Amino acid sequence: MVTTRAPEDAYTAQPFVPDRAAGLNDLREAAAGCRGCPLHRNATQTVFGAGDTAARVMLVGEQPGDQEDRRGKPFVGPAGKLLDKALAEAGIDPGEAYVTNAVKHFKFTQAEPRKRRIHKAPTLREMTACGPWLAAELALVEPELIVVLGATAGKALLGSSFRVTEARGTVLEREIHGRRERLVPTVHPSAVLRAEDREGAYRGLVADLKVAARELS
Hints:
Oligomer: single chain
Distance between the termini: 63 Å
Low-confidence stretches: none
Strand order of the largest sheet: 1-3-2-6-8-7
Number of helices: 8
Strand content: 15-25%
Mean pLDDT: 94
Helix content: 25-40%
Largest sheet: 6 strands, mixed
């Protein structure tokens, strides 16, 4: 008996990424059918990047949260609202940015069907599987600067040795998916919401985003 291997067993989105995408809508439509890793099985839908494809700055987070998974858009929950506020305070117009996540499906645990879905961090294998989508977004947007939001996004872009506490608020230059990129890492806004000293954590996020704003000025 021959066992047919499911596409997600290969842990790569590459077969689902169109060779010649005319624009963001082409990528988003293709991503909706992605079966590049098992995360699609439990998620409501693919949550692709959104915003201005001519943006000078790309913001890369971890993965969609519960509200993003239900609504199909990135950064529309509490963390997204806090991020928009911090960006504006730092001097970056949120409406002129492109926002996305390293992983496009919501990964969660759930004790019972009607219970709250609890965020679960994606593995390096899942991040790597989703990498071709991020590469396609970078090729389309061609940002001048990438703001790396949190440890997961940092590991997806910069490797497993990345530590946000060591790199935050600095300007890095690295080759990412075949392109030379400038990056400013900072914490994920959800970490600010979880912090004991929320005001202090927020001020730290704004300070890091001001570094990004200076790079764009």
